[in-house]
Each structure stands twice: as C-alpha cells, then as structure tokens.
Amino acid sequence: MTDKKPELLAPAGNWSMLNAAIKAGADAVYLGVERLNMRALAKNFELDELPEIVKHCKDKGVDVHLTLNTIVYENELSELEEIIKKAKSAGVDLIIGWDFSVIQLCKKYNVPFCISTQASVSNSVSAEFFRRLGAKRIVLARECSLEQIKEIKNKVDVEIEAFVHGAMCIAVSGRCFMSHEVFNKSANRGECLQPCRREYEIKDSDEKFSMILGENYVLSPKDLCTIDFIELLIEAGIDSFKIEGRKRSPEYIYNVVSVYRKAIDLYYENKLNSEIKAELKNKLSEVYNRGFSAGFYLGAPGQKDYAEAYGSLAATRKRFIGRVINYYKKNKVAHIVVDADRLETGDQLYIIGNTTGVVELKVNSMLKDDEPKNKAVKGDDVTIYCEEKVRENDKVYKIIKVN
Length: 403
Fold this sequence. Notes:
Layout: E1 7-11, H1 15-24, E2 28-31, H2 50-59, E3 63-67, H3 77-90, E4 94-97, H4 100-108, E5 113-115, H5 124-133, E6 137-139, H6 146-155, E7 159-166, H7 178-183, E8 201-203, E9 210-212, E10 223-225, H8 230-235, E11 240-243, H9 250-268, H10 274-284, E12 292-293, E13 316-328, E14 333-338, E15 342-344, E16 348-353, E17 357-362, E18 366-368, E19 371-373, E20 375-377, E21 381-385, E22 395-401
Parallel strand pairs: 1-2, 1-11, 2-3, 3-4, 4-5, 5-6, 6-7, 7-11, 10-12
Antiparallel strand pairs: 7-10, 8-9, 13-14, 13-22, 14-21, 15-20, 16-17, 16-22, 18-19, 18-21
C-alpha cells in the first residue's frame, strides 16, 4: 500500500458542476475559460471569474487546475499570455497544456504547469524531456498500459496523472480530424462534434445496395471505468486520478466523484472488496455512460470495448418536476413547487443549483398546507424533509429508472 492517497481530480464546466465535485469529495478540479481549451463547446467559465473560483475552492481545501490544452495560433499569443497572467494572479495551482507557447509563458510567469495527454507522452525519455523543461506533472497518453505507466513512474521523478473514468476517443490521444473534415469543427481546438459516435452505413460504388456497418458503433469506444481494478492504479503510484466529463451533467459529476472518493478511501481503510466494487460500478451505471471498458490499462482494447448503442446506456434519467421556493434550515425542510409532472412519496430526487451543487434524496413523506399527502401535481407546493441545505430557485428533478 502506498502512503500517499492519489489526488482525485474532477471536471467542472459551470458552478453547479464545480460545487457538485467539491461536495462529492474532489481534491482538485480542472476547468476552462472561454477559449484555448479542449472543451470549447462546453459552457466554461469567464476569465474574470477565476479569482472567485479559486477563493471558493481554496476555502473548501480544493486545488484549481486551468486547461489551456489546444493548439495555439500566432494571433492568439497575446490572449494566451493575458490568461496565464490572470491565472497566476488568481492563484491557480496548475495550468494544463502542451503547446510550447503555453510551456514558455508558464515558465516566464513562474506558473506551475502540467503536460496534457494531447502530447501523447508514452515513454520515460519523453517524460524526462518535459520534466527538464519544468513540468510539475504529466498526463500520460491514454494508450499506455498499467505496466508502462509503472515503468515510466519508476524512471522519472515527476508527478503522473492518468484518466480513471469517462469518455474515450478512437483517435490517438484524441488528436482526431474527423469532426474538422465533416463539420469544419476541429477536435484539436476543442470543437469536436463527435461524428464518430454515430451509426454508419456503407454503400457499394454504384449505390445499388447499402448495409449498416456491423452491430457495434465501430468508431465509438465505450467509456473508461477503472473501479474494478482501482487498487492496481493506486499501487502503481499514480499521483492524480482524473475523471473526464466537463460537458456532462452536475449529477454525473456528483455520482462519479462520490464513487471514486469512496473507493479510494475504502482502499486505505483495507475495506475495499469485490462486493463493494460491484456496488460502486452499479452506481456508476446510473448516470451517463456508453458502457464500460478498461481502456488500455490491462491490454489493448478489442471488439467488446466498442459502444453498442448511440448515446447513453444509463440505468436512470432525470425528469424536471419543479423548483425550490424556500428552505427552512432549523427544521431541514425544503419548500417545493411542482411545475411539471407530479411528485409522490417514494420518489428519488436530484436538487441541483449553482451554489447547492447536487443533493440526492428520497421523498419519505410530504406536507401540503400542513396536511400529509402522498402525491402532488402540477401547481401544488409541498414541503419535504431535506437533510442538506438547498436554495431558492434550485431545480428539482425526479430520478426515473430506465427499463
């Protein structure tokens, strides 16, 4: 067993996701501002929000990593420099990039930097090269096996970060040109529209007949999930466990971070076993996923590692039903108005808001006009017990099981 717990690093694309990650137990979050990051189509934060974000996270004991991991063009250098200067001023802990302009400017302003997986660092010589350039940390290529990671870690004195959960790309380290070719939206600029995730049809040259290309989505890998063998990653000495998902939902962040937080903590308590891992994996299946794969960790992926359907295979989905109109802290009661559908005792809910993050609860009872009720319909306002504080205008969703 290693003495130091790996950092649990969570994605954040907005305030709801950020607070969901913090509440779920993330040690650090990574995020982007308006430009120059690999999730340009995510909501992202405004550059001027960085001081507030960093202060908020520091107050919670959470580090902030800023992504500047796209290719950078000549006309963007002044903007890049301005972002790095503001990141330093705000107290950002680490900048993630791989373009040498990012590296050079981080060195100029003495800002710690991490080499992005986009650099495809797959061996100890490359890792040592970036270490000598001043990199504090390296996100290894997703194509590295666990044995290769261990060897690199043993040979180079630099922090190693590796993905443990989330979407995988068919292209090497995500450097794909398909979206650019089809839609003129470059994956290497964070604009990918994911044409690889779709079902494809092939036609003969004379277009006399066509066929669907197999039963699998052959360009769409399943999502990475390492919960089955997370102890091997811990014992390999990986410094940071990174979760992918800046374009996913707050409840996705909350569930996934919570699961990996619990798994890591239980490992160090000598309580992590196969039964608990199965329960945790089942919890992961409740939120967005394309099926699960071990990625490259235990060997090269095969046919079984490609998605079997378009979109999510999640065992649950959420349905909007209303919003919070008040919270009574003393009695731990949320006052909710039902704006759509209906609410019944026994329902599982998500309550989501920018400050609240995500609260998950079961409706064991409810009151309408101080009278017990089993059901509330559109237009009704009711009170329910809610252990955690929620806030006015937080949105309320019913969790629906998918058959």
